[in-house]
Amino acid sequence: MSLAQIPINLWPPDLTEEVAVLEQEPEDMERSGSVKFEKAHDDLDYFKAAVVVPAGGRSFALKRYQNSPLPGVGLIVAKAPPAELRLQLRDALKALGIELSCVTWARYDLAG
């Protein structure tokens, strides 16, 4: 299942809220054929990222810093109140075909 993507240099400016970390690594997602990551860097480190545009849904991004001490891919969504962030998290997981049990960290205000 391949998802529509846009190049990371066209990253929508509203995608700023990291709401969760998924246990998958970029290589896992690429092997499954769901997402293709691009390499880039910012003022922190080199990273791999992807911007996903689900059909009929809101865009989200996935980002993994090269030298992160912990495994997993960060899930980044549009800034919004916590109730909306929960919906964006749920929709992104659904688009990726990933279960909630694969979330290793989520923002404290998204519980419930």
Report on this model:
This protein has 112 residues and is α+β, with helices and mostly antiparallel strands. It has one domain. 20% of the residues lie in helices and 33% in strands. The chain has 2 helices and 7 strands; from the N terminus they run ββαββββαβ. Strands 1, 2, 3, 4, 5, 6 and 7 form a 7-stranded antiparallel β-sheet that branches. The chain is globular, with a radius of gyration of 13 Å. The protein starts with a strand and ends in a 6-residue tail after the last strand. The mean pLDDT is 92.
Write a concise synopsis of the structure shown.
The chain is built from 2 helices and 7 strands. With 112 residues, it is an alpha+beta fold. Strands 1, 2, 3, 4, 5, 6 and 7 form a 7-stranded antiparallel sheet that branches.
Secondary structure layout:
Layout: E1 5-6, E2 15-22, H1 26-32, E3 38-41, E4 46-52, E5 60-65, E6 73-78, H2 82-96, E7 103-106
Antiparallel strand pairs: 1-4, 2-6, 2-7, 3-4, 4-5, 5-6
Tell me about the largest β-sheet. Answer: 7 strands, antiparallel
The helix tally amounts to 2
Question: Average pLDDT, to the nearest integer?
Answer: 92
- Order of H and E elements: EEHEEEEHE
Helix content, binned percent? 10-25%
Q: Give the terminus-to-terminus CA distance.
A: 29 Å
Q: How much of the residues is beta strand, in percent? A: 25-35%
Overall shape: globular
Secondary structure class reads alpha+beta
Radius of gyration: 13 Å
- Enumerate the spans where pLDDT stays under 50 for 5 or more consecutive residues: none
Give the number of domains.
1
Based on DSSP secondary structure assignment, what is the total number of beta strands? 7
